[in-house]
Design a protein that fits this description.
Layout (H helix, E strand, L loop, with lengths): L13 H8 L5 E3 L5 E10 L17 H6 L10 H10 E7 L8 E5 L3 E4 L3 E4 L7 E2 L4
Parallel strand pairs: 1-6
Antiparallel strand pairs: 1-2, 2-3, 3-4, 4-7, 5-6
Length: 134
């Protein structure tokens, strides 16, 4: 049975199956066919992930790690952190820019397909979540 506008509904768990196929170093292509960069991190979603909220407490040892130059992952505004952890995401190193530290996050359900060498997204690069401090 088809839904409105002729778009078939996705099978439950399909985006989860696709994210399991993604590996670090794979090329990432957006919905417009533009090569954005490469996958630098994959996080499978955890529907039971804790809601870290927007407080400043953080996790045990996090203060020390941050003081030593680490940063939180995903490195996004606090309201988005819990969503990315629950749904799953890939982190993309943008290779179109001269800077080596520009990253985007794509949610698991934004992954349209995965083949041996690349990840194809259902969104353009401008619709992805930019990392903070890039």
């Amino acid at each position: 049975m088809s839904s409105t506008f002729g778009v078939e509904p996705e099978e439950p768990g399909a985006s989860r199956q696709r994210i399991f196929q993604v590996k670090n170093g794979m090329d990432v292509v957006d919905a417009a066919g533009e090569h954005i960069g490469k996958v630098t991190s994959v996080r499978v979603g955890d529907p039971d992930a804790i809601d870290i909220g927007t407080g400043d407490r953080g996790l045990p040892g996090e203060g020390f790690a941050l003081a030593m130059g680490a940063h939180r992952e995903p490195n996004v505004p606090p309201p988005l952190v819990s969503r990315l952890l629950r749904e799953g995401y890939i982190k993309i190193d943008d290779k179109r820019r001269l800077r080596r530290d520009h990253h985007y996050y794509a949610l698991a359900d934004q992954i349209e397909s995965v083949n041996d060498q690349s990840v194809h997204l259902s969104r353009t690069w401008s619709e992805l979540i930019p990392a903070l401090d890039d």
